[in-house]
Amino acid sequence: MASDLSAALQSVDWGGICSDFIKDEARSKRVTACIEQIALWSAEIQNTDRENLAIPFVREMHASAMSVTASLALGLYKSAAGGMRAILESALYYSYFRDHPVELATLVRDEKYYISRKYIMDFHKEHTPDFIKRQEPFGLISKIESWYSNISAIVHGQIPGVWSPVDIGSTKYSDERLEAALVEFEKSCGLVHVLLLVVCSPDRWSAFSPASKEKLTKGLSAEQKKALGISKK
User: Fold this and answer.
1) What's the confidence (pLDDT) of residue 84?
2) Where does the pLDDT of residue 165 fall: very low under 50, low under 70, confident under 90, or very high at 90 and above?
3) In terms of pTM, does the model score above 0.90?
4) Residues 6 or more apart whose Cβ sits within 8 Å of residue 70
5) Gap between the Cα atoms of 70 and 83, Å rounded
6) Any idea where the domains of the chain sit in the sequence?
7) Coil vs helix vs strand at 213
């Protein structure tokens, strides 16, 4: 009944859950680092590739990161898992469709048309210049496969009860669940960061602002920078 749903929703201390979330300054900084990195990629891509019809995937990537943040703050950890997967999927779709306008038009026109994550990764392995070499120091291919499999198990309920309460009224702040979810959020944003670095061609990278290049290459090892062949200048 509608009255039961209303009562359940109103019984949850949403404000209290959010307050508990932001009390932990260290965790708040970790979340902020994630969304700032995604926002930086989104801003640079939209600025340098603004006429590309695949740009909506970049906006969706950014929106999904914000949605994950809101879900974590409200104790909706299971919902956050779906958003994390959407961040990676959106980045993958952009990486493929930005150079495939005909396929993108088909995607928009035909609701049965579908490009899988595996198809996109296989495409990059075969056709993106030096993809295998560039990703090697990061272990990107194996990490995407492993992370995607694990997060999908949560999204599809193959690991029931780990990230979600029994019912709406049981929704509350959970230190343990938040930490588990935050670790996966960091992994998802990290994978997107590396993916976009690896598939970013020299001419596209050269169009990025020096300040953004500085931030996007921060923390990379000498081996990783050499494999990417990119400069922060």
Assistant:
1) 97
2) confident
3) yes
4) none
5) 10
6) 13-201
7) helix
